[in-house]
Design a protein that fits this description.
Largest sheet: none
Number of domains: 1
Strand content: under 5%
Helix content: 55-70%
Radius of gyration: 12 Å
Structural class: mainly alpha
Shape: globular
Length: 84
Amino acid sequence: MSRRSIYEVVGRNIQALRKQRGMTQAELAQRAFVDRSYLARLEKGKANPSIKVLFYIAKALSVRVRELVKIGRGKKKLISPLHF
C-alpha cells in the first residue's frame, strides 16, 4: 500500500466517524485543536497527521486511534495491511 493510500484510509475513517457523530469539520477541528482547513486536507488524504494529531482527533471522536487507521472501515474493500 502506498503512502498516499494509507493517508486516504485515515482520511475516510475520520470523515466517516465525524459524520456518524453529526459533527461538522469546524466542530471536530475545534475539539481536536487543529485548523479546519488542515482537517479537510486530512479527510481528503492529502496530509500526513502526526501521532499527536491522531490522538486528539480520536479523543474528539470518542474512539481509539486504531479506529482511525483501521483498514477496511470504509465502503471500498482495501488492500490487506500485509501489502505495505
